[in-house]
Structure formats: structure tokens, C-alpha cells
Amino acid sequence: MCSSLFAEQHNDYRREVRLARMLASAGLAVARFHYRGLGNSAPASASLDAFTQDALDVTLAARRLTPASPVAFLGEGVGSLVASRACLDHPDAPLLLWKPVIDGAQYFRDLFRARLIAATRARAPRLATTAELLAALVTEGHVDVMGFTVAASLHDSLVTARLTETVPRQPRRILLQPFRGARAASVEQLAADWRERGCLVDVQPVKLIEDPWFIPDGAAVRAAVHDAEEQLMANARDWLLGLWANSR
Amino acid sequence: MSTPARAASTDTFPETALYLQSGTETIFAVYTSPVSAPTDLGVLLVHSGPNNFSAHRNGVWTEISRRLARAGIPSLRFDFAGTGESSGEFVLRLDGQPVADVTKAMDALRATGCRRLLVVGSCFGGIPSVVAGVARGDVAGMILVSPPLVLPGAGGMASFQEKVREVINRPTLRTVASNREYRRWFFGRLASLAWTRTTVQLGRLASRTPASRPPEPSAGTRPGGGLPIESELARLVMTGNHIEVVFGTSDDNLTRIDADAEASRALRRLRDRRPTGLVWTIFDGAVHGLEDVALQEQLIRLITGLARDLAGRPQPA
């Protein structure tokens, strides 16, 4: 599982844990990890290539721990870019993407806008503009976005990345599960592009919001979110189990 | 107490993943061993509850653990039940599972050999830390980072009025009027909100679910003004512990105290009784949620500085 990053990860983390346990209950081994330099992992320079290598290293380690041979990759949010690259080394691996980030540049535009909400809620006196942030990335090598250190090495490697250009080298089974939000608009085009390249792509829209920061946490809303998450995870599990059952 | 531990980090920072039994739940913790001569003080890092995990925002807890390790101070960070890697469902309570989780983490840290504890609680995490800490004699100090000493609303959750104030306030409206980027974002989020509420209402109608559900369990919370944990704080302060409360000038949790006359009086009483025992530190900006990297660094220095100071003091007889 290749997780999302920054503020998005705080909402996504628990969902990934729950999916891992749901899959384990169904007999599938799951490996999750913190990218280098983040969470509980050791300090290191961050980049898309480095994170992709982390995913491949973890896959190798997981394969030593379990006799299972087929492997699948799941990417959530910007982790979709990591997962789609990692799976290039595994020709038969199915790919599952939750609320995929299709365009790295758009991802950072949205992240820098989200910073405005956070700063306004915190009653910050004056916000740095996006142009000022980009200048600081060059001069200081990192910027603060909502309490997360965004390193220039990570920004520079992600900002040019596009899912459409991560060309599957082989026909591959792919499940796209877009959430409601800006990213969903580009998913159909992505699916069409990948189908043209010989992939078998399923699209299952999900009744969850991409970035739920403005959604009140009332009991009814929480219950609705929980139900939608259960459905999302069950669909991912059933898709994967069905795929592997049919391939035997 | 703990099921088999596994080495989980680098040579520089020897860290061990622990799975601790807390009632019926299994909670996940990371223990960081000192890399220089060990002191008798251990630091427990308690995160803020929902939507958080052991490393805390931007890995702040991880960074603190590793700086402490260099100073010979062991530390432990953990996930409340229902958060991060732990089992169960998180419930916002001032007693029960969250307190049991903190107690279990304290016991696990003591079991590594340290005799005194400095407990650092972020936001909600500070509250069960105080409740658990008052029941034992090994807590030497506590740092409460933007704790909700006055609970939002009556039941521990933000009231509708507070939610409205969060959106309809002068800075937000000014930014909506003056910033095109923000305006686009703001109205996009309002549309998302409207969509979600409509979906929920339609779902209720379809399933004939009653509109008013029973309130969430929040045993231990007391509606109305005042400090729900005043007596626990008083006991910690009076028994010689160092309690440091850290806020940012724009933290809602600080505003709530200022707006609550009863809570303000209670805090004055505590500070009057032992001024050196209850230290009030206010940073400029927002400490709550650790949403500012520069403030994170100030906080890290404050926490590691107090830990080194306490570790250097002899244990009271």
C-alpha cells in the first residue's frame, strides 16, 4: 500500500489500516510502510524515485515473509503515482488507485490552496502567495504547508509527474476508485487512455469526499462516511479476490 | 503486558514496535532507546486523538524521541485505541479507554527501567494524560499542548454555533472578498458540504432513521462552564509536579478559557496556590494541531529542554 502524503494522510491513514486488516481476514498478506523521512521511518531525502524504491523494497521484504506469489499495488492520493511506478517492475500485478492524483502540478496547486483555508482558520495575519512559496522552495530547499515540511526534492520530482504518462508496459488489470472532488473529473480520461494501451480498467466512483476538511463531524455524517468507507474497502477486496480467483 | 516486540529502526535510533494490551484492545507503541548513558526519566508522547498516529503531524513526536535518545532519555509514543495502528474504535471520553491506554503506555515505559515520567499530551491527549497521571506517583511533570481544558459545546463536540463561527468570521469573510484563489476553494467546499448534508438527509428519509440519534458517549464530561479536570490538575500541581500548559495566541482552546469566567477563576486559583507548579506558556500563532513548522521547532525545544532539566534534577525523596 502506497499511502497519501501530508494533511491528506491524516484522514487516510486509518482507512488504510482498516483495509489491510480486512484483506488479512480474507487471507491476503498486506504490507504498509512509512516513506523514508516521514512518520516513524528514518530521516532521508524525499523524492518520487526514492518513495518508489521504498515501495519496491517493502514488496521484496513482504515476499520473504509470506509464501504468496502474486502481488498487487494500492495507491491512495499522491501515493497513486508511487504505486503506478512501482508496479512497472511487476508485470502481472493488478493496480488499485483510491482518489488518484493524476497530475502532480495540479496536486500542488490544490495543496497550496488548502493552505489558505488552514491559515484563515488559524487567523494568520498574512499568507505567503503560491509564487512566494515556490521561490522559497528554490532558496530554502523546503516550505511549510499546513505544518508539513515539503522538500524541494519531493516537490520537483512530483510536480512533473502525471499518471497518464506512467505507461503500463503490459496489459494490466486496474481498478480506479475516484472520490467526489476535482480529481474525479480526469479519471474517465485516464481510464480511456489506459484502455487504449491494452489495460483492463474498472472504474468505481466512491461516495466519499476527496478532502473532507469542511465537512462537520456530526454523528450522522460520520456514520455516512463510515458506511461509504466500508463499501469502498469491500469493493476493493472483492475486486482483487475475484481477479485472483479467476486467474487460477 | 506486551506481545513480542520487533526491532524497527536504524542503528542511529534503536526503536522497537510494541503491541500493548489495553483492556480488550491492542494498542501500538514505539519505544525509542537512549543512545547515550540512560537517565531515570522517561518521556511519554500522547497524540491528539482522532486522525492522528504515533509520529504526530510532520513526525514531530518522532523527532522529539530521537533528540531525547541522544540525551540519554528513553521515550514512548503510541496510538490510542481506534487510531493509527491500534485496534478498536476511538471514543472521545475523559475516562474509560483513552485513560486505560495512557496508563498502559506509562506502565510500558516504566517497565523499560525509568523511574520517573514526563508526559506530553497534545490537544485531547492531554486530558486522559492528566486523569491517568493523577492516579500514580511516578509522574514528575506534564506538558499539555493546547489542551481543551474547557470543552467545546456541552458534550465534548463542537456545537453548531461554534461550527458556524468557524466559517462565518471576519478573517474568513475578508479573505473570501479579497482572494480569488481562496474564494474558489471556499465555495467549492460549501458545495461539498451541502451535497453531503443533502445525501445524509435523503439517506435518513430512505431508511426512516430518526433525525436525532442518541448522543455520543462522553462519560466524564460535565456540561456547562469550568474545568472538567480541575481537581486532577490541582492534585498534580499540589503534589509538586511541574505542569506546563502551552497555547498559541490564536488557539480556540485558549479563547474558550478566556470566554469562560468559571474556568478562568479555577486556573487563577491553581496558579495562586503554587505559581511555580503551573507554568503558562503562550506562543505567538496557532499551536493547536501543530500546523506551523516554526512553532513545531519551538515546541520540540521546549519539550526536550524540560526533559533534560527534569532528568538532571535529583528525584525527590
Q: Report the CATH architecture of chain A.
A: 3-Layer(aba) Sandwich
Proportion of residues in helical segments of chain B: 40-55%
* Helix/strand order of chain B: EEEEHEHEHEHHHHEHHEH
Name the average pLDDT of chain A. 89
Query: What is the number of E strands of chain A?
Result: 6
Note the topology.
The complex is a heterodimer of chains A (248) and B (317).
Chain A: H1 6-25, H2 48-65, E1 73-76, H3 79-86, E2 95-98, H4 104-121, H5 130-140, E3 142-145, E4 148-151, H6 152-159, E5 173-177, H7 187-196, E6 200-203, H8 219-247
Parallel strand pairs in A: 1-2, 2-5, 5-6
Antiparallel strand pairs in A: 3-4
Helix pairs in contact in A: 1-8, 2-3
Chain B: E1 2-7, E2 15-22, E3 25-32, E4 41-46, H1 60-70, E5 75-78, H2 97-110, E6 116-122, H3 126-133, E7 139-145, H4 160-167, H5 170-178, H6 180-207, H7 230-238, E8 242-248, H8 252-259, H9 261-273, E9 278-283, H10 293-312
Parallel strand pairs in B: 4-5, 4-6, 6-7, 7-8, 8-9
Antiparallel strand pairs in B: 1-2, 2-3, 3-5
Could you please describe the fold and organization of this structure?
- By secondary structure, chain A is an alpha/beta fold.
- Helices cover 49% and strands 10% of the residues of chain A.
- Chain A contains eight helices and six strands; from the N terminus they run H-H-E-H-E-H-H-E-E-H-E-H-E-H.
- By secondary structure, chain B is of the alpha/beta class.
- Helix content of chain B is 40%, strand content 19%.
- Chain B contains ten helices and nine strands.
- In chain B, strand 6, helix 3 and strand 7 form a beta-alpha-beta unit.
- At the A-B interface, helix 1, helix 4 and helix 8 of A face helix 4, helix 5, helix 6 and helix 10 of B.
